[in-house]
């Protein structure tokens, strides 16, 4: 089971470049942003659809890359 890391981040960004924007935020440097988004633990993943009628999906734990792909493919 592959987990998210720097290499996986890059692969997902390339694989989904037409369908998603993948952003990694350093919460130590972007403390106010982390507070505004109520980030309490790492990793915290947000999946925000371009469709304003769909609610954002928030995940506050490590999840397999396949689960990330499934969310991007099926929920966005």
Automatic annotation (TrEMBL):
Q: Which residues form the Thioredoxin domain?
A: 10-57
The answer to whether keyword Transport applies is yes
Q: Which UniProt keywords apply?
A: Chloroplast, Disulfide bond, Electron transport, Oxidoreductase, Plastid, Redox-active center, Transit peptide, Transport
Q: Single GO cellular component annotation?
A: thylakoid
Can the keyword Chaperone be found in this entry's annotation? no
Predominantly, its location class is: plastid
- Name the Gene Ontology molecular function terms of this record: protein-disulfide reductase activity
CDD domains noted in UniProt: TRX_family
Q: Which GO terms describe its biological process?
A: cell redox homeostasis; plastid organization
Which protein family is named in the record?
Answer: Belongs to the thioredoxin family. Plant CITRX-type subfamily.
Name of the protein: Thioredoxin domain-containing protein
* UniProt organism field: Gossypium raimondii (Peruvian cotton)
